[in-house]
Amino acid sequence: MSIKKHIRKIAKFILSSQPEKRVEVNVAQINYNEILKGKNIVITGGSRGLGYYMARKFISEGANVIVSGRNEETLKKSSKELGVNCSYVVYDVINISESKSFLEKCMKMFKGKIDCLVCNAGVSLHENIYKNVSENGFDLQFNTNFKANYFLAKEYLEMKSKEKNVDASLLFISSETGNQCYDIPYGMTKAALNSLTRALSRREYKNGIRINAIAPGVTLTDMTSDYADAKDGNLYRNCASDRIFLPEEIAEVACFLLSDASKCISGEIIHCNAGNHLNPFWDEDIE
User: Fold this and answer.
1) C-alpha distances in angstroms, 281 versus 182, 241, 263?
2) Who wins on pLDDT, 272 or 98?
């Protein structure tokens, strides 16, 4: 074999054994009271219920937060309660044509970038059975819970694609119903949201964007007030987990997922329901 062939063979071996790109990882540790220090976070539907408790938790951990919603009076009141690190923007997620301008306004208010977007706004009509579902109710829930979140997320990802050295998170608020068999729109919208979470994560993680979803069980908020009542302090509910969950509990999980300590987590649907969505092989009457 000639010298030139030897050189070509050696060069080919060296080149083929080299990785296409270099990846380095810095392991973050949790420092409580500043786990989200300096992060700019936008929460849709952030003036009430779970959105409000997430905003409160994020701010307590050092984040700057913008909450959005349709009712300015409620937003103003909540923003005042949450303190100087909280601002608000009046925005109805169902107005998809305004998604881009909404994000641009938030970015301008932050004087920089949006590190995390939490798609929390949603609606449930509690029809109980398919026979009670109307076309208008079907459209309202799909347009609010899925279509609006889909296009807002799309705008956010396109915005981040224009930035350099991206390090961001997108968090969807799903539901345990998204992992169960449902014949009413709410659960179906959450199933679609779960699929979207996983697919977007596969596309975007390598671009510096983590995408996850939280799937709470029945949580004590305005949305569940007609069937989840714990005024006497009793959180019992007749289900596999035996209880109702608190929005403060869900907010803790959301905080972790937006923190740098969870950088190895993406494409996950984190159920916050003590396994209520799981179906064991035994009958529920057997201990």
Assistant:
1) 20, 16, 34
2) 98
